[in-house]
Amino acid sequence: MKNMRRCLGWSIHALTASGAFVGLLALLAIYQHDLLMALWLMGAAIVIDAIDGVLARAVKVKLVTPEVDGALLDNIVDFFNYALVPAFFLLVTPILPDHWRAPAALMIVFASAYQFTQIDAKTSDHFFKGFPSYWNIIVFYLFFWQMETWVNLIILFALAILSFIPIKYVYPSRLDYLTHNPLLRAAMLLATLLWGMTTAGLLWVYPHSNNILVSISMGYLILYAIISLYRTKVPLPKH
Fold first, then answer.
1. What is the CATH number of the domain that holds 119?
2. 239 assigned to some structural domain
3. Which domain does 45 fall in, by range?
4. CB under 8 Å to 122, separation ≥6 — which residues?
5. pLDDT category, 213, cuts 50, 70, 90?
6. For the chain, how many structural domains are there in total?
7. Which of 97, 217, 223, 239 has the highest Cβ tally under 10 A?
8. Predicted TM-score (pTM) above 0.70
């Protein structure tokens, strides 16, 4: 039984590490200007990141594989996938003004480096402190919306500033202190899953669009922002 749990622990670490390889494939797709494939791969990396933490907590990897720092491994892979890969995406695509691509990528890397290295980047009540470097998600929306390049730059700049402001952002897979109501926690988890499916649907129909998918995808972002601001202002009392 003990050996089985150790095997499961190592398998989960391998799953986490595989996210870095998926990110590497995304870089290759960006280099080859296959941007849709790159976005699919960036989405796959998000799925791996969402799953591995849940599995790690279920198996209690800290106990079964104490020689491996799973949190450090996760942060390394996340910094690569959530910051460096989207920064490279911005460097080689026309989403931003030509002369602002490198400064914007530098801004994202620096803001992410700060966010990832805060001692309490993930708060004791399981929220992200400051904008949680969701740059891979942001570049998807900028790619999909096809807005003016200077508008995209302003959005990136604003989000980079938010990395330094101690607003608490919902951690979608750690909802312990979102609410004491288990039904509301389940509803938030289902909303996150629905957002993921509708956002994948938008990528599937691209370059066309779908008003229903857009409404659901954007509605979730608004809900996420409102709940994050509310929980920053009104923390959930502990039992």
1. 1.20.120
2. no
3. 2-233
4. 128, 129, 171
5. very high
6. 1
7. 217
8. yes
